[in-house]
Every structure is written in structure tokens, then in C-alpha cells.
Design goal:
Layout lengths: L5 E5 L10 H8 L3 H12 L5 H10 L8 H8 L6 H10 L2 E10 H10 L4 E5 L1 E4 L2 E6 L6 H15 L6 E5 L5 H6 L2 E5 L3 H6 L2 E3 L13
Parallel strand pairs: 1-2, 1-6, 2-3, 6-7, 7-8
Antiparallel strand pairs: 4-5
């Protein structure tokens, strides 16, 4: 069994990367503005995340799967992300990402940024286009917290040796489950409940906090 000294788990959209992937996909359908407004409401915690995600994904119906490559080419890694993942590995830690976004994008982005394991939603496809539905169970706030606990147990990492980093309301359960919950590029409700707030949008700022 693989073991680790500690575990760092990040959110993806607006944390690991600067983009909100669902907004880039919605742009392909000409519906970015409405999806962006719904995403911001969900991140502020004003609406249930799973319900909001299903509604936003409905807006993607008909988007061709060829759009995935265009979206992947537009992804901007957050400053400092590769410095952080390298520092975690140098200290004997493992990096995980658990996202309310999509495997179709994260499967390419995560390993390139030094992430060891990741979990996200999948989009249902029929033929060469999106159906507007999520395929399988939705990765929501409870699933994010469960992923952190599950990975820590698999790696033999004590809960106190886990760090969770997120920006939105659906990250709060994961942050509460971790030994250290860091608000990064975060909404006010998240900053208010975090163990610490990272001021600059630069993930290398987290390195001094590593065990």
C-alpha cells in the first residue's frame, strides 16, 4: 500500500486552475452569461450545488465533444501550482484534486500539473454531443469531504496531516474535515469559516504551511 507523510487536496476550478470549466463549455453553446451567474450563486452557497450543477449542465445540451479539446487549450493553471505540487512531493506528501467540474477536462490537466489523484463529474455523451445530463453521481460538498477522508485512509495519513484548499461553498465540508482548511481565491462565506485565508492568488503561498 502506498503511504504518505501528508495529503493536500485542492478544488479544481478557480483553485488549481483559474478558469470555471463549465463556463468555457457554456460559451460553446452561446450560454456563458446565464451559466456564469448560476455558478457564482452556487459558489456563494445561495443554492444547492447538485441542483445548480444539473441545471447548468442542461445548458450544455448539444455541445459537440470536439469542444473538449478547445476548452482544454484555454485552461490557465493558477500561479504557483507546479511549485506547490513539487514541494508537496519533495516532503513526502500526495496531492489530490476533487472537483465539481468534469473528468473530460481534468484527466488531461491534473497530471500535467503534478496531481497524483483526482475525482470529478462526468458528462453524458450521445453520439458526438453532450446530452445536457451528468453521468453518474454528482461530486458535491459531501463527496468532496468523503474523498479527502477516503484518500487519507488509503495513504495512512492522519486527519490532522491533511490540508484542504478551496474557494467555494461546496468546499466547506472538505475544509472542515481536513486538519487545515485554506480559503484560496475564496468567496466571503468561505473566508469566514477557513482555518486560514491565503491572500494572494498564488499557490506557492501555501508551501510554508506544509508539514
Amino acid at each position: 500500500m502506498t503511504t504518505a507523510r501528508f495529503l493536500v487536496v485542492l478544488d479544481a476550478d478557480s483553485t488549481l486552475i483559474r478558469n470555471e470549466v463549465i463556463e468555457l463549455l457554456a460559451e460553446e453553446a452561446g450560454r456563458r452569461a446565464e451559466v456564469q451567474a448560476a455558478t457564482e450563486a452556487a459558489m456563494r452557497g445561495e443554492v444547492d450545488f447538485a441542483t445548480s450543477l444539473r441545471t447548468r449542465v442542461e445548458a450544455l445540451a448539444g455541445v459537440p465533444t470536439a469542444a473538449f479539446e478547445r476548452v482544454r487549450s484555454r485552461i490557465e493553471p493558477t500561479p504557483g501550482v507546479q511549485e506547490l505540487t513539487a514541494a508537496v512531493h519533495a516532503r513526502g506528501g500526495v496531492v489530490g484534486v476533487v472537483s465539481g467540474g468534469f473528468h473530460e477536462i481534468l484527466d488531461a490537466v491534473a497530471p500535467a500539473l503534478g496531481v497524483d489523484r483526482w475525482r470529478a463529474n462526468r458528462l453524458e455523451v450521445r453520439g458526438d454531443a453532450l446530452t445536457g445530463r451528468v453521468d453518474g453521481a454528482i461530486v458535491d460538498a459531501a463527496a468532496k469531504a468523503a474523498s479527502l477522508r477516503e484518500w487519507a485512509a488509503e495513504l495512512g495519513v492522519a486527519p490532522r496531516a491533511t490540508i484542504a484548499i478551496g474557494d467555494g461553498a461546496n468546499d466547506l465540508q472538505m475544509m472542515a474535515a481536513a486538519g487545515l482548511g485554506l480559503a484560496f481565491n475564496a468567496k466571503p462565506a468561505v473566508r469566514a469559516k477557513a482555518s486560514l485565508v491565503v491572500g494572494r492568488v498564488d499557490l506557492s503561498e501555501v508551501i510554508p504551511l506544509l508539514p
